[in-house]
Design a protein that fits this description.
Length: 292
């Protein structure tokens, strides 16, 4: 019988990737990592709130990327040398960079591989978020807010007065009865007759956020499934684009992508590929000479 050629095996097959999280993010991450890499994702439950909270009681020190890295390092520091692979996520919310008046969810996934000696982080900006915060002073306004942000499948956070109130804070509110009760309590304790309401952005209270993390986990798992042709380290993939696609008319270089550059996270080896748009020339409309 003829021997069948084996498919290249993922270097993570049968291995355990430690995900530092307090908010059950393996719900989003485990299945892409299993399907694409045959890897297991094991949650290491740490109180990551010490590194910052969305609701502002603990300000995040450093930016989101540093925070995600710190979460990975927690797994190495606290669990010891046997941990080879660590993963963590960090999200930020605010105005969309390109779509006016629209909020966005900016997610980062940070991966450290001590066995193959590299780290890799990827990010994703999505407009699929219910992120919103408001000051209200009636139950009617509260219910209107709740309706607009997919409550009760997506939870809310309430506090008396304004966003500066540190205590009491009512988090993870995801039922109508509790919402009304908490609103009454906040009104009672309010210094200015207002109640501050915002969407709870912690992943297990926010299915929209969980879905965005999953999209990013799929991108990361894809990237980890390819090895560098030169040094065989996993995580071979697109690292940047090279502009300069020639103008159809005058042949001068435009700002449009000429090549996609694939690279390695460990060595300096790179390869050029045809750009994703598949075009050989740019429309003269994009040319600084033909269309100044
Ligand atoms: Zn031109
Ligand atoms: Zn390499």
């Amino acid at each position: 019988m003829e021997k069948q050629s084996l498919k290249p095996r993922s270097p993570y097959a049968g291995r355990c990737i430690v995900l530092t999280t307090k908010h059950a993010k393996s719900i989003a991450i485990a299945s892409p990592f299993f399907e694409k890499l045959n890897a297991g994702v094991l949650e290491y439950v740490v109180d990551t709130d010490q590194l910052g909270t969305f609701s502002g009681e603990v300000e995040r020190s450093g930016n989101a990327l540093e925070c995600a890295r710190r979460k990975c390092e927690l797994a190495f520091d606290l669990l010891g040398d046997t941990v080879e692979f660590a993963l963590a996520s960090e999200g930020s919310f605010g105005p969309h960079p390109f779509i006016p008046f629209s909020p966005c969810d900016h997610e980062i996934l940070y991966f450290i591989d001590r066995k193959h000696d590299f780290y890799l982080h990827m990010s994703h900006v999505s407009e699929k978020t219910n992120y919103r915060k408001e000051s209200i002073n009636s139950l009617e306004e509260l219910l209107k807010f709740a309706d607009a942000v997919q409550f009760p499948s997506h939870a809310l956070i309430l506090r008396p007065s304004d966003r500066e109130t540190k205590t009491p804070i009512f988090k993870g509110i995801n039922c109508q009865l509790e919402l009304k009760k908490v609103f009454t309590e906040c009104m009672k304790q309010s210094a200015n007759g207002n109640v501050w309401v915002e969407t709870d952005m912690r992943a297990q209270f926010n299915p929209s956020r969980m879905a965005v993390i999953k999209e990013l986990a799929e991108k990361l798992a894809d990237r980890l499934s390819a090895n560098c042709p030169a040094c065989d380290t996993p995580s071979w993939g697109k690292v940047r684009v090279e502009p300069g696609l020639p103008c159809q008319c005058c042949k001068s270089e435009t700002k449009m992508t000429k090549h996609d550059i694939f690279g390695c996270t460990r060595c300096s080896y790179e390869e050029k590929y045809e750009p994703f748009h598949g075009l050989k020339h740019s429309d003269p409309g994009n040319c600084e000479f033909c269309n100044p």
